[in-house]
């Protein structure tokens, strides 16, 4: 499956910790991320991550385009709920996920449920819905 990793600045360390804890599961999938998040996770975990541009240079739009074309199967976007300036970006990504029935987690609790479900095969329906994306 194609998994997108995104996080606001003060949630990047949490994303690194999460990916470290679940590196075994994540390593069996294709990972994409915005630039800074992707490099931080890759350097800390050794996971192979395809990095898009940084958030400031359009990385979230690049991931959004992949979501719109149904090329992403799962999105983990650790958001800062106290950041008013980032609310529009979160809404943009979550709306695209809702439009395309793509599982989306905006916090670590939901992300853990999705990753554990992914490991159990609970998200295998994505391969049926999008057979071109099977890995």
List keywords for this structure.
135 residues; alpha/beta; 5-stranded parallel sheet
Biggest sheet layout: 5 strands, parallel
> Architecture in CATH?
3-Layer(aba) Sandwich
Write down how many β-strands occur, each being a DSSP E stretch of 2 or more residues.
5
Helix content: 40-55%
Radius of gyration: 13 Å
CA distance, first residue to last residue: 6 Å
**Strands ordered across the widest β-sheet:** 3-2-1-4-5
The topology string of helices and strands comes to EHHEHEHEHEHH
Poorly predicted sequence stretches spanning 5 or more consecutive residues: none
Oligomeric state as shown: single chain
Could you say what the CATH topology is called?
A: Rossmann fold
Task: Provide the domain count.
Answer: 1
Mean pLDDT: 91
* Portion in strands: 5-15%
Structural class: alpha/beta
CATH superfamily: Methylglyoxal synthase-like domain
Give the SSE map.
Layout lengths: L1 E6 L4 H10 L1 H4 L3 E4 L1 H11 L3 E3 L7 H10 L5 E5 L8 H13 L4 E2 L2 H13 L4 H5 L6
Parallel strand pairs: 1-2, 1-4, 2-3, 4-5
Helix pairs in contact: 1-3, 4-5
């Amino acid at each position: 499956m194609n998994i997108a990793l995104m996080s606001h600045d003060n949630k990047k360390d949490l994303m690194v910790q999460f990916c470290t804890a679940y590196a075994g599961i994540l390593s069996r999938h294709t990972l994409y991320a915005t630039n800074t998040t992707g490099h931080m996770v890759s350097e800390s975990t050794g996971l192979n991550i395809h990095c898009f541009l940084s958030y400031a240079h359009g990385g979230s739009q690049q991931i959004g385009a992949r979501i719109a074309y149904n090329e992403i199967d799962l999105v983990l976007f650790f958001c800062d709920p106290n950041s008013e300036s980032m609310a529009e970006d979160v809404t943009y990504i979550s709306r695209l996920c809702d439009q395309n029935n793509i599982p989306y987690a905006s916090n670590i609790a939901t992300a853990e449920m999705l990753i554990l479900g992914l490991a159990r095969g609970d998200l295998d329906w994505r391969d049926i819905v999008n057979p071109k994306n099977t890995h």
